Structure formats: C-alpha cells, structure tokens
C-alpha cells in the first residue's frame, strides 16, 4: 500500500503544472515570450507564469534574488536578465558588465539550485563566440579563444553560464541549459541611438531623420554581416527548449547562414518600411565591431526541420509599425 502511495505521489509530482519565473521579463525577449504565453496559447492549463522586471528585484543582489524566488517558488526559470548596452557603452565599461553579469547569473543559478528548480533556460548571446575563428560557428566552439575585445566583459560573464550549467549537471544532476540567439529584434526593444541594438537604433534614427528632413547617419561602413531573428520566433523556440530540449549543452537559435545580410541591406529595408526617401550616409569614422559572426543553425534544424522563421522584411515592417504606434512607451 505504501509503495502504491509513493508511486502515485511520483506521478503527481511529474505532472504538476509548471510555475515559470522569467527574469528580464520586461525586455525584448521577455515581452515576446509573454505575448506567446498570454495571447498565442503558449501557456498550458494550470501553469503560472511570472514576468519579473528589474524594479521588482535587483538580481545583482543575492538577498533580493532569494526573496523573489521565495515569493514565486518557481519550478522552472527562463533567465533573460542581464546588464546590457550597445557596442559603444560596452567598449567604455567592460569591467562593470563583467562584474554585474557574473553576479546576476550566479545568484539566479545558485538560488535555483538551492530552491530545487527543475530546469533553467538561460539566454546567451552570439557575441560570446571567439573573435578569431572559422565560420560558421557552432555550439562546440564557444570557448575556443577569446571573444571580441569590444565587449569582452559581458561575453566572458555569459560564457560562464555554460560552464556553470555543466557543473550543476555533473555535481547535482540539474538540467540547466542555455540558448544562443543571434541578433534579436522586435517590439519592446531598446531603440536608443547609442545603447540600442543595431536594427532598433537604426529604426529610431530613420524615424527621426524622416521627421526632421535630415540625412540618415549610419554609424560604421554598413559592411558587417549579421543574422537577424524576430523576437516572436525566439519566443516560440524558447518555449520549445523549456518543454522539449533535454541537453545541457547550449543550442543556437538562428536563421540559416544563407539569411545573413549586411547592415546596409537592413538599413534599406528599414528605409522602405518607414517610407524614408532621404539620403543615407555611412560614417566610417565609427567602429564596425565584428565584421561577421556567422552561426550555424544545423543543430536546431536537426530537432526542428520545419520551423518557419519570419522573413526579415516582414519582421522589420512589424517592428517599425510597433515603434511608430508606441513611440510614447518605447525605450528611446
């Protein structure tokens, strides 16, 4: 009889609906996951989803991290929170980015361990890849040499998540893993000229140039190549990783290598989307950052051969429309 009761308890524990805590829930990817969960049927019956923003808890602080975990008692964590900035801010403050991100990540992962969280999916970034490398880059190459100098602090802190995940599995058998999206863009991004991601900053600049009737000033030569992925596509893939992906090793979330295109091509798509007819000037006195960081999505395709990505022109149009319609609340 006891054995039966134990078995019954086991099966109950296994089927208990997830309580998911999303750190960095008010950012670009957090908002996209929230959209999928609340409006696209991404939430299964009985699940509780909490989207945490930095106002509720400063995750650099261990006590605040513990308090928020005590409050929500998550069974699963999607860890998106990070101290981030644009290329130029990273170049000025590498040490701050290193220290703050090491603390945030250790606090979240160790608190998850202490509170018995079943699974953590953390978000890495394609800027963690080695600077001197062969292309395309895949998941096995993350630690093969130093990252680009421009944001070495942030990159090394992010790489350590992968190392910690390995440690939590070896020592405690936890299934903590990570995803590596390439360049994400979409609604709720940071559209600030200096600190924003490249596409969003360019959307804001184009919008302003159109309004003021001035030329569009693009920082750099326009020649670097990038793989851009729409935030709602990333959100769909995050839900799949949370529910289905069982590896500890990270997985790259990206469009295919053939989808990589230059900043110049992207600027032209943005100009089209915002109906900007003025002059476009490339300021080559400004740094380009990495010329390319082509990532392979072969591993993702082995798991999900039929996943359909939003075409870039369509995603840019949707994001530009969102920015124009939500200018008052957008991060600018």
UniProtKB/TrEMBL annotation:
Keywords in alphabetical order: Isomerase, NADP, Oxidoreductase
Entry annotated with the keyword Oxidoreductase: yes
Residue ranges crossing the lipid bilayer per the database entry: none
A molecular function GO annotation: GDP-L-fucose synthase activity
EC number: 1.1.1.271
Domain NAD-dependent epimerase/dehydratase: 20-255
GO process terms (BP): 'de novo' GDP-L-fucose biosynthetic process
Keyword match NADP: yes
EC class of the enzyme, as a word: oxidoreductase
Pathway, per record: Nucleotide-sugar biosynthesis; GDP-L-fucose biosynthesis via de novo pathway; GDP-L-fucose from GDP-alpha-D-mannose: step 2/2
HAMAP family assigned: GDP_fucose_synth
Homology family: Belongs to the NAD(P)-dependent epimerase/dehydratase family. Fucose synthase subfamily.
Matching PANTHER family: GDP-L-FUCOSE SYNTHASE
Function summary: Catalyzes the two-step NADP-dependent conversion of GDP-4-dehydro-6-deoxy-D-mannose to GDP-fucose, involving an epimerase and a reductase reaction.
Protein name from the UniProt record: GDP-L-fucose synthase
Protein species of origin: Hucho hucho (huchen)
């Amino acid at each position: 009889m006891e054995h039966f009761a134990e078995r019954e308890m086991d099966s109950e524990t296994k089927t208990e609906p997830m309580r998911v805590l999303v750190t960095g829930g008010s950012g670009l990817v957090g908002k996209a996951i929230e959209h999928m969960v609340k409006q696209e049927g991404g939430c299964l019956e009985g699940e509780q989803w909490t989207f945490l923003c930095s106002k509720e808890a400063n995750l650099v602080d261990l006590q605040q991290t513990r308090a928020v975990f005590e409050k929500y008692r998550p069974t699963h964590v999607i860890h998106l929170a990070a101290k981030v900035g644009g290329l130029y801010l990273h170049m000025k403050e590498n040490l701050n980015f290193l220290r703050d991100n090491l603390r945030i990540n250790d606090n979240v992962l160790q608190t998850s361990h202490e509170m018995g969280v079943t699974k953590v999916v953390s978000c890495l970034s394609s800027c963690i890849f080695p600077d001197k490398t062969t292309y395309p880059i895949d998941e096995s190459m993350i630690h093969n040499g130093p990252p680009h100098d421009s944001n070495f602090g942030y990159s090394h802190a992010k790489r350590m998540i992968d190392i910690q995940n390995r440690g939590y599995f070896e020592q405690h058998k936890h299934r903590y893993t990570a995803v590596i999206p390439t360049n994400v863009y979409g609604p709720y991004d940071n559209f600030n000229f200096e600190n924003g991601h490249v596409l969003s900053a360019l959307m804001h600049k184009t919008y302003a140039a159109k309004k003021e009737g001035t030329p569009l000033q693009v920082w750099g030569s326009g020649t670097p190549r990038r793989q851009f992925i729409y935030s709602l596509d990333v959100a769909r893939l995050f839900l799949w990783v949370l529910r289905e992906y069982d590896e500890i090793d990270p997985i790259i979330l990206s469009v295919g290598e053939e989808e990589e295109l230059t900043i110049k091509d992207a600027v032209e798509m943005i100009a089209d989307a915002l109906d900007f007819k003025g002059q476009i000037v490339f300021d080559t006195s400004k740094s380009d950052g990495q010329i390319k960081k082509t990532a392979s999505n072969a591993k993702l395709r082995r798991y999900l051969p039929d996943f359909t990505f939003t075409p870039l022109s369509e995603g840019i149009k949707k994001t530009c429309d969102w920015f124009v319609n939500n200018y008052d609340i957008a991060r600018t």
